[in-house]
């Protein structure tokens, strides 16, 4: 495989960067809000699961 010169490499990078479709501000904000809401929902879910398993473990340890 032939080596690419630094100049050719930079031209290839610029050509690829022109193909990138950047999200609009509205899409970015909407996605960020969705991620934040999902993060809160999942944290509450795992808090509930952890609490239930903790209670089960405490109950099992009282039997021993």
UniProtKB/TrEMBL annotation:
Single GO MF descriptor: protein transmembrane transporter activity
Membrane topology term: Single-pass membrane protein
Alphabetic keyword roster: Cell membrane, Membrane, Protein transport, Translocation, Transmembrane, Transmembrane helix, Transport
A biological process term (GO) from this entry: protein secretion
Chief location category: membrane
Transmembrane regions listed in the UniProt entry: 32-61
Oligomeric and partner information: Component of the Sec protein translocase complex. Heterotrimer consisting of SecY, SecE and SecG subunits. The heterotrimers can form oligomers, although 1 heterotrimer is thought to be able to translocate proteins. Interacts with the ribosome. Interacts with SecDF, and other proteins may be involved. Interacts with SecA.
Protein family per UniProt: Belongs to the SecE/SEC61-gamma family.
This protein's name: Protein translocase subunit SecE
Gene symbol of the encoding locus: secE
């Amino acid at each position: 495989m032939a080596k690419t010169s630094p100049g050719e490499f930079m031209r290839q990078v610029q050509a690829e960067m022109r193909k990138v479709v950047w999200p609009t501000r509205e899409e970015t904000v909407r996605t960020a809000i969705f991620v934040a809401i999902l993060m809160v929902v999942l944290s509450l879910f795992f808090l509930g699961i952890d609490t239930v398993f903790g209670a089960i473990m405490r109950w099992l340890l009282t039997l021993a």
